[in-house]
Amino acid sequence: MSRKTMLINATDPEEIRVATLQDGILYDYDVEFIHNEKIKGNIYKARVVRVDTALQAAFVHYGGTKNGFLPLGELPRDMVSPDGRRGRIQDLLHKDQEIMVQAVREELGSKGAMMTAQLSLAGRFLVITPGNSVNGISRKIEGQDERKHFKKLIDELDIPKDTGVIVRTASMGVTKEDFQRDLEFLLDSWKEVNTRFKHRNGAGLVWQEDDVVTRTLRDSWSPDIEEVHIDDLDTFHEAQSFFRRTMPKHVDAIRHYTGKKPLFSKFQTEEQIDRVYGRKVPLPSGGALVLDQTEALVAIDVNSGKTSGDNQEDTAYKTNLEAAEEVARQLRLRDLAGLVVIDFIDMRKESHNKAVQDRLVEGLKADKARMEVGKINRFGVLVMTRQRIRPSLEHVTHESCPMCQGSGKVKSLEALVLSVVRRIKAITAKGDVKRVSVRLAPAIATEVLNAKRRDLAEVEERGEVELKIIPDYAVAYGDMQAEIERREEEREPKAEAHAKPHEPRRKREDETVVLGGDSPISFEKALAEPKSDSGKGGFGYDQRDLQRAALEERERLRSLFESAKPEDEEEEGDEAEGEDDAKAEGGRKRRRRRRRRGRGGDRAEGSASETLADAQPARPVESAPEPPKLSGDVIASLTAPAARPKKLGADKAAAPAEPAAEAPAPKKRAAKKAVKAETAADEAPKPKAPRAKKAAAAGDEAEVKPKKRATKAKKSEA
Q1: 115: in domain
Q2: 687, 577: one domain
Q3: Among 268, 318, 355, 571, which is most exposed with the fewest C-beta within 10 angstroms?
Q4: CATH number at residue 176
Q5: SS (H, E, C) 343-395
């Protein structure tokens, strides 16, 4: 006969672990965290939030994080509509109705807890069902004689009319007095539940299921368990109290462990528990099981590994027998539920398939969950289902991996490096990025800097961007954190003129001109500058006045240019003796003007001011200061578009237009004519050389011959 031992580890306040060993091998295991208490079996006062006619179910608020799900089939059997019919849920429940419910399934992922209104309270030997007078016996009790014996005991018990009783599997070998004592305890508990429900305001907990220690002793202890070792003193006293109330004959089985070595290590249990969390489970003959828990189902694959036999059929048969027994154990240990698909090694003989199925069913008999087992089909696959009693062990003790997001796989290093480079190129593609700082896991950052240094340099050169790769242990493997600094876009002058006070204006390399003061600003900007108060540092000009002054200045310069044209016509008439003489005279005039401009030197600005003073004055602007004076370059740009009224000679047309500031005043025309006549007389004997034409075409680069210096001296005397 096998020997069973129960171990309860409660030294850590955050966690309680209960393990059952059969001949030293881990037979059952349960763990509960204090911060993650289970709600299955708890009774709540709930409020109906919504009635879904399509699902024929109601969603109820019971105080949890998600609303509970209450289907029509879980309503009390005696609950009928006002007209006496029990058909649709909308006829039985309505919004904001208060109802007592019990959790039958834990919250799982995005799914809320499953609720029922058919309440039950479990004891050591009996389960009472208030509101349902039907009695029953556990299906685990299969012997007909035993079932008849328990049915007779139920009839002898003092059970209320509106309450039913179910005999549990642990009742084997108990007496009528044990049943009656357990029944009275459950009826007292039910009265307390009703009292709490009536006095509670709003949705919330009414009755809490026993903790993991009491629950395990109540549900899992059996007479074949010889010893129960507990390493925590308070838990030891609690277990003793439970045994004295329900099983006083076996109270001596509870023992307080005080050894120096941890309890689970003393019984070589820690190593077995660690293997429960593994994906691969070894088999005695060298084969292995591979278990994968997915959202839809649990997949179990059987591998032969190093298992050997007389032939392929014997090897497959031997491995499958070991796998069937281990599958039943792993389903119980890991609390795997739902659809389970087992892929056995293919076997040709039908008798072998039948033997493997029987071995699996035999191993599942020790499981308390309800199951349906199919047959091995022609593909070697067996499909079965298992009732979910509690969340799986993996769900309770594990979390999804932050690197692979629970998939179990991550990208290769090469693929991650290429992905990082592509992301950097996408970030810098627009051309408005100034600096990018990329934080990566150290392994990825090192590979990027070593393998993709040339690509990063090309990105920096092409996009004129500064890249910085920073290894950071805080960044998860496969993640990328980018800090982007973009360039500031230049604004248009108008946008700058109307910028908000707190936004600094950008400097632009525009041509500058003095406008009635010492501040050089853009002429275009000045015309667009709005009126500002002098106290705020403005120019003191109205925008319309400035525009009007600029237009009038343009007209004045054009009139000045027109007034200089009669002299050119008169000179052209005096020198019209021949075409060649006119061309030569034109070349000499241009040279004389260049010489005068060289002698003037730094007086160009002053000459322009004197010329403007002698010319027709501009009409004054009302309520504005004197219009600003313009430089010679701006005057030249303003006068350039004006067309000459009369077509000049070829040489004159080719010559560049002279600034209006160089035009001689009308009162000096007589002296200039005398100088021109004397110069023409001195140079008359000289032949008509094409050198004059060459000098005229060369423009500013024409050289002045030494023999012409006499003309310069005479002009100085004049």
Answers
A1: no
A2: yes
A3: 268
A4: 3.30.230.10
A5: ECCCCCCHHHHHHHHHHHHHHHCCCCCCEEECCCCCCCEEEEEECCCCCCHHH
Chain centroid, CA 436 distance in Å = 19
Domain span holding position 296: 277-397
Chain centroid to CA 359: how far? Answer: 50
The residue among 647, 652, 670, 645 whose CA lies nearest residue 588 is 652
304 φ/ψ angles, rounded to the nearest 5 degrees: -75, -35
Query: What is the per-residue pLDDT for 537?
Result: 39
**Mean pLDDT estimate for the chain:** 76
Residues 24-27: contacts with CB under 8 Å, at least 24 apart: 24/267, 24/268, 25/272, 26/269, 26/272, 26/273, 26/276, 26/333, 27/329
| Whether residue 227 is found in the same domain as residue 319 | no
CB atoms near residue 660 (< 10 Å): 22
Q: Residue 464, Cβ neighbours under 10 Å: how many?
A: 11
Q: Does 298 share its domain with 393?
A: yes
Overall number of domains in the chain:
5
Check if the beta carbon of residue 427 is closer than 8 Å to that of residue 436. yes
pLDDT for 452? 92
List the CATH number of the domain containing 257.
3.30.420.60
Residue-by-residue DSSP string for 554-570:
HHHHHHHHHHTHHHHHH
- pLDDT(579) > 80: no
Amino acid at 227: E
CA distance 405 to 22: 37
**Whether the Cβ atoms of residue 62 and residue 68 lie closer than 8 Å to each other:** yes
Q: How far apart are CA 702 and CA 478, in angstroms?
A: 73
Per cent of the chain over pLDDT 70 is: 69
Looking at the structure, do residues 302 and 358 belong to the same domain, yes or no? yes
Q: 482 forms bridges with which residues in the sheet?
A: 438
- Could you give the residue ranges of the DSSP H alpha helices within 473-542? 493-497, 523-528
- In terms of domains, do 572 and 711 share one? yes
Question: Residues 107, 65: contact at Cβ < 8 Å?
Answer: yes
Is the model's pLDDT at 705 over the cut of 70? no
114 and 143 in contact (C-beta within 8 Å)?
A: no
For tokens 């313009």, the residue is: 630
Contacts of 108 (CB under 8 A, 6+ apart): 391, 395
The conformation of residue 487, written as its DSSP 8-state character, comes to P
- Residue 509: its pLDDT value, please? 37
Same domain, 161 and 253: no
The verdict on pTM exceeding 0.85 is no
65 DSSP assignment: S
Q: Are 588 and 513 in contact (CB under 8 A)?
A: no
Is 391 a domain residue?
A: yes
Residue 295, pLDDT > 60, answer: yes
Percent of residues in the chain assigned helix, strand, coil, to nearest 5: 40, 20, 40
Based on the domain organization, do 425 and 350 belong to the same domain?
no
The whole-number pLDDT of residue 597 equals 65
Q: Are 578 and 625 part of one and the same domain?
A: yes
Q: What is the pLDDT of residues 204-250, one digit of tens each?
A: 999 988 888 888 888 888 878 889 999 999 999 999 988 888 888 88
Give me the pLDDT at residue 608, please.
Answer: 40
Residue located via tokens 């600029």: 550
Spell 254-282 as b/e; 16+ CB within 10 A means b. Answer: beebeeeeebbeebebeebbeebeeeebe
13 domain-assigned = yes
